Amino acid sequence: FPVLEHEHRLYPSLSVAAAAGLLGAQPEEVIVWPGEYVGLNEQRRIPLDRMGRTLVNFAGGAETYPYIPVREVLTMGASAPELARERFEDMIVLVAVTAPGLYDLRASPFDAVYYGVETQANALANILDGRFLRHAPGESCILIVLLLAAAVYVAMTRLRPTPAVASGVGLLIAYNWLAGWFFERGLAIDVAAPSLALIVATGAGLTLRLVGEERKTERVWGALSRFVPPGVIERVVAEDPQALLRGQRRDVTVLFADIRNFTAKSEALSPEQTVDLLNRFFYLVHEAIWELEGTLDKYMGDGLMAFWNSPLDQPDHALLAVRAAVHIQRRIRHNQDEWAFLGMPELEAGIGISTGEAVVGYVGTGERMQYTAIGVHVNLAARLETMTREMHSPILVSASTWEQIRDAVEGRPLGPVNVRGFSDTVEVYEVTELQ
Q: Residue 5, Cβ neighbours under 10 Å: how many?
């Protein structure tokens, strides 16, 4: 405090009183403007903050200004007065007691132990040299905090996690460097509050980002869990969950499976038995598809559609689909005795498979969205499944599928056939077993 009030009178500090005397400022020439400055004879204006304080611009650590023990001065004055006079000529000497037990200890930016007299020496030097520190207004600190928080918010919402964190750290380093630059030029701006705000804002931004990513992941899990095996979902989420929301052209292998003559067979069953039969059939088909990492597209009455090579890349997708078809036929045969025991009719299924380009992605609006494949080969697989009845073949595949699996299965060509909806004949192959 440059000036203190006591019993309605103002008293200058040691440094201000000494400076006033050295600058020739009479008591009536000392002007105090609360919250602004202390004027000394219009020669110096010591800046004040709103609490009536001034910042001390320390020249260095303890004993930056030399300490001379009193006994040395007395000895020198007694033995060599001329030498003592020369040593202190043109110097300002502050006399004080520096015994630690007198509790005249202060802290400075350089040292934890700093005698009060040296603080006064630094303050006096500031006044005489005009080397003052001015504290930036509190409003500027609030503005800086808001601007930094806004910058971190933009970084956290617009950038990917790594660049966003790098931006937050960069802002922290840049702000502290800028604060040091201003400090060297006599302006002290708050460092603690903005730095803390940056750290908190970065942490909060990362937390919100993490929560958002978890929600996105949960939505992906929820959307795919009904159609895709858990192992596939984990890889999709790890690689690119947003790819699911984008329609894309991919080579896929599509499988359609349907119960033959289901309508006629279900006439002899009660509604409860019909539903039970369908559920048992769908369970074993669903199980075979998931074991081979297929994507279950939809159920359609007594049939279903599945496809491979989306959302994950599966180089052997044609073979995976055909293996699933063979496993389905095997499981139907193996379960005939169980169904007969339950009073259900003997089941047969037809399966059609085709491989080729399709558009894959979410189709629909709002809550009614379906991850599906659309294209010529989807239609061809559906037509082949229908043709299994008239051609008396459990599994039919197109030529594009046969070219990729011919060395891994047992089967035979059935020649070019006319397929409803296709202007040209289509080469069709029957698959009977895996090699």
A: 11
